[in-house]
Amino acid sequence: MGRGSDVMKNAAARGRGVRAIGLSLLAGAGLWAGVGLASAETALLNVSYDPTRELYREINAVFAEDWKARTGEAITVRASHGGSGAQARTVIDGVDADVVTLGIPSDIDAIARLTRKIPDDWRSKLPNEAVPYTSTVVFLVRKGNPKGVKDWADLVKSDVKVITPNPKTSAGGRWNFLAAWGYAYNQDKDAAKADAFVGQVYRNVPVLDTGARGSTVTFAQRGLGDVLPTWENEAYLVLQEFGADKFDIVSPPSSIYAEPPVALVAANAERKGTTKAAQAYLDFLYTDRAQAIFAKHHYRPIKRDAAAPADLAQLPDIKLFKIEDLQGSWDEIQKRNFDAGGLFDRLSRAGR
Amino acid sequence: MVETPRPKRTFRRPSVIPGFGISFGYTLTCLGLIVLLPLAGLVVKASGLGLSGIWEVATDPRVASALRISFGVSALAALVASAFGFLVAWVLTRYRFPGRKLVDAAVDLPFALPTAVAGIALASLYAPDGLVGAPLAKLGLQVAYTPVGIFIAMVFIGLPFAVRTVQPLIAEIDREIEEASATLGATRLATLTRVVLPPLIPAVLTGFALAFARGVGEYGSIIFIAGNLPYVSEIAPLLIVIKLSEFDYGGAAAIATIMLGISFLTLLAINLIQAWSRRRFGYV
Amino acid sequence: MSEIFSPAFVPTAKPGPVASEGAATRSVLIGIAILFLALFLVLPLFAVFTQAFSHGIGAFLDAFREPDAWCAIRLTLTVAAIAVPFNVVFGLAASWAIAKFEFPVKALLITLIDLPFSVSPVVSGLIYVLLFGSQGLFGGFLINHGIQILFALPGIVLATVFVTFPFVARELIPLMQEQGNAEEEAALTLGASGLHAFRTVTLPNIRWGLLYSVLLCNARAMGEFGAVSVVSGHIRGLTNTIPLHVEILYNEYNFVAAFAVASLLAALALITLVLKSVLEWRFAGELAHGRAH
């Protein structure tokens, strides 16, 4: 059996290389198994929507500081951002959020309805119907406004390309949609005409991103489209990030009263034992300190006197309408426009 | 192989090598837990809608159009990837030129490069103000944020499959047959189309099917460059994500099941092609 | 890599003129192939690095000063450190069972192992959402018992394992089949135990194939986007992997940082390619042939 002993000899010689591979694998696994992800201090998770990244980075730091000063405890607030609907979905599927700060009330309604982790009457749990700041939709256009976009009616001109996110997944997209509808409805109180107007707007839309941020990148970085109807705060942020020499903000004479609400995810916080801190975090959003930060980031604070006058001066007077006054409750608004078979579905089918 | 008498019928053919039970059992357990159980969960979820429900989802105009875009563009991209892949494989195996090995190594780049990285890189290149997009825009051709962008991304990710399935077979072709064909008076073109190409067809088809399957399911590299407009440039995987964002789990599962069924058929087709090839040409 | 340009690789093959294309055709074909690859493959890679350094090295390094970037890097390494060894063990077991033994339904088993290759990454994530989401089959039960799978490390690992499931097995099965059973049978006849034969005979025979598959498996594990994106929850500093961090930076108008972090993954891809090529050139005989993935 000469062949057999050859095999054994070869094997012994080759064993070393294999052991080296095996050892390095083991070492790697051991090293990283040792690195835990958990930490001892209290941590809150705020699941938020797309454009609030910069806002909550500041709020979270200031709140942690404030909490430390008041209780002596260290706290970290983590944030997660994305299209409002997509974010609500992750909470529904089990993200351990202590609080949600989403772009539109219907997304929090959905969490309450599908998981029971948020009480149905969440809007009554905090001041101002659980809306700590408001905002509206304005237009971002290219420098000098070459297409002369002044008002919502200009969005349906045949040579104007509009960039807006998908209303199915983005709260900003829904506010844009509802703002266009509300504008048209307020012209002659005709819902059918308003529906048709919105359809015309969306015929001018070449790109539908899933979140407000995607749309901003498409418009500002990629240079697509003539006008970006977007959150007022987002428009100012673009001027800051990309340079005021490239874009102008056009505030239409009238626009929508946008209410991004907040809520405690009661069941999660209770299970994690973070209810007190989470509630304090939400209450903190209504303090003068937080209100001033909202204004600084170009959101409209509900306590105007807490904000710096210079920040307030940047928020022009726009005639704001509430969509609930035109279409009824949020349940109805969601169903009429965005649910399967709703107005948006019908429009995109007709508009192809 | 010495024919040993079998005392009784067993699941596997008897062998002196040990460890079948444990390795086979472990394989099945992993396969079951990681792959089969979750996929079964998907099918169960989708079947909650019933066959008619799935059909309704599949024929919903927006879903139908997303599936059409995913499958249509992917087929086109796989076609182009196969054609150029064949050319690249041919050049790499038949010709010697400086830097050949470097080019050979580069073919696998899409395989190693994370799709999200490919996505932002392609988007920045093909955007109207990008390195490639700007000159194209002057010609009135827009790539990023149109179905052409999807096509580009799919060709990118499909290319290595197209090259790597054909390459080993080109290397194995017996050159003497070609010379014989040439000696017998065939033109080079005739030799290629009648002698060289036919045995390569199964490999080209396999490469096409792999690139196609990969393209249909691709997500990361496409969403950055596609524009994501319903009925125009919205792909089926994105629609699954959108359905999830709308809390429509059944709809998401239904689209996923349809895609899964088609993936499975594609795999089956690949296996059939290979079986046919084995019978017809004696190799895969 | 100097050997690429060494004389040995400059035109050596001299096929008879009748059995090859003319020199002009050849040059044109080489030209088209290289141009095509340059445009489609090299340019995107080039774009990543130029964008990453477009504001100088300082801006590039700034991307790595952020703690979130390090959390993402750490999470990605953790995930790969679990998923890759898992797939190595699975691949060894599966290839041992499939290559060393004869049993029915083998073809079906291989097809099932292959399945994750052709499943869309989004679907790979979705199946775990349907299973472990709080609306899912087991999710409610697990979450009530304080076990968080989705939007935490286990979910990300599961999705990654799924996506990279076939990598090691599919490399090792044909390799072991090519090598046959003779050496193991000889060792066993000489009195070696099964485990000993595996360690001293099989493993050395497949080591380069194994390393090769680990390389590719690791690249895919670290770079997976679609599947992980569905199960991650995108919590900064907690459940963001490197590819997701790239997306986040990109969506925060932080393009330089996005491309800087992306260049990390691109560099990983390049290293993978180099090592892979080295393995292919030096140990071609010890890798599986005719692989298709």
Please tell me about this protein's structure:
The complex is a heterotrimer of chains A (352), B (284) and C (293). With 352 residues, chain A is an alpha/beta fold. In chain A, 51% of the residues lie in helices and 12% in strands. Chain A has a four-stranded mixed β-sheet with strand order 2-1-3-9. The model of chain B has no long low-confidence stretch (mean pLDDT 88). Chain B is globular and about 65 Å long. Chain B has helices spanning 20-47, 50-59, 61-94, 100-106, 109-112, 115-126, 133-138, 147-172, 175-183, 188-196, 201-217, 220-226, 236-245, 249-281. Chain B contains 14 helices and no strands. Chain B has 284 residues and is mainly alpha-helical. Chain C has 293 residues and is an all-alpha fold. The model of chain C is unreliable at 1-17 (pLDDT under 50). Chains in contact: A-B, A-C, B-C.
Name the helix and strand elements of chain C from N-terminus to C-terminus, one letter apiece: HHHHHHHHHHHHH
Radius of gyration of chain C, in angstroms, nearest whole number:
23 Å
Radius of gyration of chain A: 25 Å
Order of helices and strands of chain A: HEHEHEHHEEHHHEHEEEHHHEHEHHH
**Major sheet of chain A:** 4 strands, mixed
Give the DSSP E fraction of chain A (strand runs of 2 or more residues).
Answer: 5-15%
Q: Low-confidence runs of chain A (pLDDT<50, min 5 residues)?
A: 1-21, 23-39
| N- and C-termini, Cα separation of chain A | 77 Å
Strand content of chain C: under 5%
What structural class do helix, strand and pairing data of chain C support? mainly alpha
Helix % of chain A is: 40-55%
* Oligomeric state of shown chains: heterotrimer
Key attributes of the depicted protein:
B: 284 residues, mainly alpha, MetI-like fold, globular, C: 293 residues, disordered N terminus
